[in-house]
Amino acid sequence: MTHPIPDASFTVVPDAVDALAAELGALAAELTEDADRTRSLAASLRAALGGHEGWLAGAATTAWAGLYEVLAARTRALGGTLAAAAAAYRAEDAALAGPVPR
């Protein structure tokens, strides 16, 4: 197997990866709140503008809320993946640090 960057190495800092995962979780929560606010705005736009224009504005705003929801879900999933990777790294590190079988 070839590596994309020959002779490259990196260091994993599990605490930093966990911190990034937590930040992504917080961002996902904010995006979910934005989706909720945007969805409620869609109803207000429909009522305020009325007619075809109101429907168009409401539909566009509803679609935007859906985009927020997708982005929140993917951000949450990435945070979960990073948290799992940090946990797996810690477990492997602990196993390697354990006693050597005879």
Describe, in plain words, how this protein is organized in 3D.
This protein has two helices and no strands. 10% of the residues are buried. It has a domain at 31-92. It has helices spanning 14-49, 51-97. It is mostly helical and 102 residues long. The longest helix has 47 residues, at 51-97.
DSSP strand tally: 0
Helix residue percentage: over 70%
Q: Structural class, please?
A: mainly alpha
Beta-sheet strand percentage? Answer: under 5%
| Cα-atom radius of gyration | 22 Å
Low-confidence residue ranges: none
Give the H and E element order. Answer: HH
Mean pLDDT: 91
Please report the distance between the alpha carbons of the first and last residues: 32 Å
**Major sheet, described briefly?**
none
Question: Any descriptors?
Answer:
mainly alpha; 102 residues; 2 helices; elongated
Could you write a compact summary of the structure shown?
The protein is mainly α and 102 residues long.
Question: How does the SSE layout of this entry go?
Answer:
Layout: H1 14-49, H2 51-97
